Amino acid sequence: MPTEAHIAPSPRKRHALELFAGLPRDYDRMGAALSFGQDPRWRLALLDTIDPKPGMRILDVATGTGLVAFGLARRGATVIGLDQSEQMLARARRRLAAHPDLTPRLSFAQGEAERLPFADREFDALTFTYLLRYVDDRAATMRELARVVRPEGRIGMVEFGVPRPTVLRALWRVHTRVGLPLIGRLVSPAWLEVGRFLGPNIEQLYADEPDLARLWRSSGIDHVRERRMSFGAGLIMSGERSAALAEVTDPVTGESHGQRPA
Ligand SMILES: C[S@@+](CC[C@H](N)C(=O)[O-])C[C@H]1O[C@@H](n2cnc3c(N)ncnc32)[C@H](O)[C@@H]1O
């Protein structure tokens, strides 16, 4: 019987690992360019929602090059940024080396959102940005994210959205189907792949999960709020880890067990 370490990555995970291996060098400026400069505003809104403070321990999952993790640490929190891509993390660590003032309270770790290497209720808050389109079992992953947050601790995410009004949605489709591949082609083959993949991938998320707030609530997160920005192209979602007894499913064995409130 294969051990956990020998389970082959699913096609979706393999694709994510290959995709992000080629992106770190241009990631920060391309993220802003592909969203018409809106993506930094969405991250700021996420930071405001989490309201990081000195003394808080925060986990930033799918940290990538660490943009959210740096923002949290700059506001005084102690932060671990976790990502499955060693190439993205290498970029984050290089940036950290240039900001030695942050090293006492910012660190990066390689790991998977589906199997967080942390104890139950270890963090005061948790953030994740553009993660849910890359995991196979979103419900199990959401429960795993909630598991490591203390009761009433905040959880927040940024994800791309699809504008709802018909005209805006049509413009968004032109941008994602024509504009993004064109911009990507100008930068590199890896960014061309992103440009082609992103629009259909975002729409698939909402076809699969038309009610993300419900998914959050069923994962043990209360007071779920959605904020749509930039005409709906950006979604900031936040909530609080439920204080009530929650049913938790072990991500490896699939067994359910009760979790006591702290
Ligand atoms: C679009 S990037 C976002 C990076 C960063 N959060 C940001 O806002 O710039 C998505 C990141 O999720 C990471 N990722 C995807 N699936 C993951 C998983 N299952 N566990 C951990 N990281 C994952 C990728 O390696 C990549 O760095």
In CATH, what is the class? Alpha Beta
The chain-level structural class is: alpha/beta
- Going by CATH, the architecture would be 3-Layer(aba) Sandwich
Ligand roster? S-adenosylmethionine
Spatial order of the strands forming the largest sheet: 3-2-1-4-5-7-6
Q: What order do the SSEs take from the amino end to the carboxyl end, as H and E?
A: HHHEHEHEEHEHHHEEEE
Q: What would you say this structure looks like, in words?
A:
The protein has 262 residues and is an alpha/beta fold. The chain has one domain (8-162, 211-259): Vaccinia Virus protein VP39 (Rossmann fold). It has nine helices and nine strands. The strands form two sheets. It has a seven-stranded mixed beta sheet with strand order 3-2-1-4-5-7-6. The protein has a two-stranded antiparallel sheet with strand order 8-9. Helix 6 (138-147) links the parallel strand 4 (123-129) and strand 5. The protein is globular and about 45 Å long. The chain binds S-adenosylmethionine. S-adenosylmethionine (SAM) is lined by residues 16, 20, 31, 62-65, 67-68, 83-85, 88, 112-114, 129-131, 134-135.
